Every structure is written in structure tokens, then in C-alpha cells.
Amino acid sequence: MPILLDTPGTLAATLNIPRVYPIMMLQRADEAVAAVAPLVFVYVDDVVREAHRHLEVEV
Q1: Which of 12, 33, 37, 58 has its CA 20 to 30 A from that of 26?
Q2: CB proximity list for 46: less than 8 A, separation 6 or greater
């Protein structure tokens, strides 16, 4: 879900960054929140790395 939406694109154009800043919540099997962070997944390996880092699972 976006945590910030730069609708006019002013900030994005000035800083050369995306107009939407995503936030990702990683939740453990026991429903505890492991991480809430602005994570952007470009490759499958990004998801695997963050799952291992925050959830301590092998994917």
C-alpha cells in the first residue's frame, strides 16, 4: 500500500524518485509483525532475501 502519493509529480521530478512510495508489512506465522518498511521488490531474489532477513525462513 502506498504511504505517500506524489500526485502532481513535483517531488518525484525534483528528486528523480517514484511518485508512489510503497510500504511492505512482513508478518510471521504467529501473526506477529516482523517488519514494516518501504521495501521495493524488483526481483524474486529480493523477496527471498527479505523473507530470510526478517522472517528467518528459507524460500
Answers
A1: 12
A2: 39, 40
